[in-house]
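Give me the fold.
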Amino acid sequence: MNYSEVEKISKALADETRLRIFEAISATERIKCGDIVSMRGVTPATVSHHLKILSEARLITCRREGQFVYSQAVPATIAAYSRALAKMAGRIKAKRRAAKENTSD
């Protein structure tokens, strides 16, 4: 996962409403958009906007079945995101260690 993908996911999850919507989607196998609207107390247009951002970040997939649109989480994206963050954190720690060693010489 490249830096721009990490940034896109981070921005998508930084919004409190989107984070709660993502949490609701992740807690189920799949969920109808109407159920998200009723659970979160936001308008259908707002839910649609947030679902689009989550989908563009590849955190969820949305699929139409008849008149309903169902959303489900993409665990592989979260796993890749977690690995990328861990890798970044490891590099930051290594740089700090190196800087500390250079100043103590």
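The longest strand covers residues 60-65.
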